[in-house]
Amino acid sequence: MTGLQIAALTGLLVATSVICALWWLAPTVPALGPALDRLTGVQPNPATVAHSLDTQDRVGAWFARWLPAAMWMTPVRELALLRRSEASFFGEKLTLAGIGLVAPPLLTTVFSLLGLRFPITAPLVASLLAAVALFLLPNLDIRGKAKGARVEFNHVLTGFIDLVALERRAGSGPRQALENAARVGRGQWVFDRLAEGFTQSSVDGRPPWDVLRAMGEELGLPELDDLANIMALAEQQTMPVYQTLREHNRALRVALLTDEQARANAVSERLTIPATMLAIVFVAILLGPSLMTLMSNT
After folding, report:
1. For a surface tag, which of 43, 195, 197, 246 has the fewest beta carbons within 10 Å of its beta carbon?
2. Which residue has better confidence, 272 or 50?
3. Which tens digit of pLDDT belongs to each residue from 221-241?
4. Cα torsion angle, 190, 194, 197, 203, sign
């Protein structure tokens, strides 16, 4: 292979890597139509949904039809919580896997131009390892973001329960208390998610506590089940639940505080590792010359 061919191949690989990286990092335009369809209860048109997908979503949807579902390791609850489509998730995994396949041969070509030679199996093995690692990276990213979203949801849920308790104390019915409380916090994504579910329940005739149970199951939020049980009991037995909601909210806040303290303690323990390593290096710097002198004299 001539030097001109190597340079052309290197430029092609560089351009491909840059395009893939920019494609992955570029912000996407939110699809407003499907969100309005979910809010009004209208089933979206498949042709419209397919037209609204971007290139990454289309690639992910196409490969999802041909590759086995077990290969994707799809975190269904996490994607539902973050309002991410499976097609977008698959497209991101394929994009990163493509970058992992291209990067090692690109680096090997660049190093070969600088005079460094590697065995032909080295870029092949590195490409496979990088592709597998980057293919699994979105799973870790989604789970981390979903974990933070669940913590935020539970913190906001305590404020929502307080509003529901106040609505019940003011004489509102169970459904009205839930809908009014969700309406107060519109603009915050947790309140918007709850208000969307209650609006949907009024359209299809389901009780709002059934919506809370379904949402808790779909998103992996068991805290919603407790609230649903309390409100369902209030509807069936027409009992005042102000104090019950307050006690439940107090227990939820204590549990959240305990989790925060546990995470803070774990972070503090991890911070001791760099300090310990720094102390070891400092001692080695102090004792190193003396030990080397002692060993040279012996």
Report:
1. 43
2. 272
3. 998 998 999 888 887 766 678
4. negative
- pLDDT per residue over 256-266, tens digit each? 999 999 988 88
For 28, 101, 102, 172, 253, the CA distances from 163, given in Å and listed in that order, are 35, 52, 54, 11, 15
List CB contacts of 76: < 8 A, sequence separation 6 or more.
Answer: 86
Cα-based distances in Å from 276 to 266, 269, 273, 288: 16, 11, 5, 18
What do you get for the CA distance between the two ends of the chain, in Å?
A: 57
Cβ pair 228, 237 in contact under 8 A: no
- Residue 256: which of 181, 143, 140, 153 has the closest Cα? 153
Q: How far is residue 229's CA from residue 235's CA, in Å, rounded to a whole number?
A: 10
Rounded-to-integer distance, Cα 275 and Cα 281, Å: 10
Domain boundaries, given as residue ranges, for the chain: 3-144, 151-253
